[in-house]
Design goal:
CATH architecture of the largest domain: Orthogonal Bundle
CATH class of the largest domain: Mainly Alpha
Radius of gyration: 34 Å
CATH topology of the largest domain: Helix Hairpins
Largest sheet: none
Structural class: mainly alpha
Distance between the termini: 100 Å
Helix content: over 70%
């Protein structure tokens, strides 16, 4: 199945890059469909014959994506269950980063500002002489390029209002990149700190248990020594 995934990818690349005409491109497209159909049928057959479908699917939740993108069948080399675990851990880590210090809310607010900036610049530029931003797709492209501080220069405002919006988006982009970098760094630092704290807590608990055991042993020794020692009057002379 991994080989079929690689073959599907190779045929797909040939189909997309080939400029030939005639029966050859149609044959390649048919081959592409047949290879993908083999992947789908094989997956469905296993789901049908497996006794515990719920348990089987819970350990292979990544498999529908691997079927939709046959190249991911390469994951079978390592094992679908292992790929499922790694993908799950990656998704959980990504969601944890988004939840860390409200990063998700920051990104959502930045997205809203980008959309508002695109709408404003489109209103300013749509009817302006010499403008190259005439519709919302152009405006949103320009806003994203501006807020990420990339600045391709293929779209740019020519009106005073549009340039004012651009300045605002530039400052938002600088703050957004700084916030994103700092939050991600803070997440990993805190994760490392929490791991160290957990190790210290476990070490303290282990040390406490050892001290308790030592106290118990000393108490037993004292009891044994006290019980075996002769009474004071027994040691005197009559």
């Amino acid at each position: 199945m991994a080989a079929i995934g690689v073959a599907w990818t190779v045929v797909g690349v040939i189909v997309l890059t080939s400029n030939s005409s005639g029966i050859a491109p149609k044959a390649l497209v048919a081959t592409l469909f047949v290879l993908w159909l083999v992947v789908v049928v094989e997956c469905l057959f296993r789901y049908i014959v497996v006794p515990d479908r719920k348990g089987y699917f819970s350990s292979r939740r990544i498999e529908p994506i691997m079927v939709a993108i046959p190249l991911l069948q390469l994951g079978r080399v390592a094992g679908v269950e292992k790929v499922n675990v790694v993908a799950g851990e990656g998704v959980e880590r990504f969601l944890s980063i988004l939840r860390h210090r409200g990063l998700f809310r920051v990104l959502l607010a930045a997205l809203g500002l980008v959309i508002i900036g695109a709408l404003l610049v489109m209103l300013f530029e749509r009817q302006a002489a010499g403008s190259n931003i005439h519709n919302f797709p152009d405006a949103i492209w320009w806003a994203v390029v501006t807020v990420t501080t990339v600045g391709y220069g293929d779209r740019y405002p020519v009106t005073e209002g549009g340039r004012a919006v651009a300045v605002i988006l530039m400052f938002i982009g600088i703050g957004l990149i700084g916030t994103l970098t700092a939050t991600v760094a803070s997440f990993f630092v805190q994760e490392h700190t929490d791991a160290n704290k957990e190790q210290l807590r476990a070490a303290h608990e282990d040390l406490g248990a050892q001290l308790t055991e030592i106290d118990a042993r000393l108490a037993r020794i004292e009891t044994a020594v006290g019980g075996s020692a002769p009474p004071p009057e027994a040691t005197g002379t009559s």
